[in-house]
Amino acid sequence: MNDPRPVPESVSSGAPRGSYLSRGLRVVGLSIAFAIVLALLREQNLWYTIVYALCIGMICWLCIDFGRTLASKWLLRRGVAGDDVRESNWPGWPWMFGIVFVGSVIGYTAGTALGDWLVGGRSSNLFNTGNLRESLSLLLFALIPATGMTYFFHSRGALEKRNAAAQAAQRQAAESRLKLLEAQLEPHMLFNTLANLRVLITLDTPRALAMLDQLIAFLRATLGASRLAQHSLRAEFDRLRDYLALIQVRMGERLDVVFDLPTSLADVEVPALLLQPLVENSVKHGLEPAVSGGRIEVRAARDGADLLLSVRDTGVGLGSDASGQGGAAFGLSQVRERLATLYGVRASLTLVSAGDAGGGAVAQVRLPLPVAESPV
Q: Which residues form the domain of 25?
């Protein structure tokens, strides 16, 4: 449940891990594209144009990135910038216009010199014309892609940061909701059991004492496990066995229990105590009203990429309460909310009449199998 994924480092955050490499690769791609366009328009040597474009583009980017970081730190040291500058290393557009201009001048000058060195001397390339006026025109023209790339990186980083913050907020809300639902589940289960115990005390004291002993053993085995967000289906079925053993002390021969857990599914992880409210509802609303009691069947099965969990009772059936309202409303809504929070529309809970000679009702949970468990 606890999934504190770090916020991705955006292209505008200035964080060195991964983001510099990502931005560098984008600069390389854009510089090559820019060089191809220039070479075609001016009929220049493509190889030389790419060399100069890469040298100028990379040096411009490094100067602008370094200037952005340096300006942000300077503003922070002077106390004239807030947390937004500290988090993004972005001093604001007034500063960035100057940084882009200076970075472009340095990048053009140093990049042209580096290109000369790489090609073995001054070439006849557009970037090295020897004409001051044409060079200045090209420098001003270079400001356009430099400003565009800076805006692109900043906008993309800001969008990624907002998306990451929204996802983190959604995860925190989901975790808080699940903790609330799980906190509601344990007292509800315990109060139901204590209410049953109170009734039994007035009817059969020895059986009430046996039930109390069973309750102590049940709580010792269950409460620790219930603090887990997930556990295996084997553990889920074990907790249900403990609970139904407790109920059998009171109901005696009126309660019959069947468990069906295939070995291949025993280690599949499921939300802890997911089926507990459904079993409680089967006992309270299905079997207890029936004079002769009945049977509870808890089964697990695979259906393609889904896991099917069912709790069936042979009690009085749904009757007018087929919607799951009334006394069963808490259990069903609790399970539905947990499924919706964890799996969204990929999981569901249905409650229907059994529709056979055994009678009663069937509650079925469908949820996606973990990827490792899904069939290839």
A: 19-169
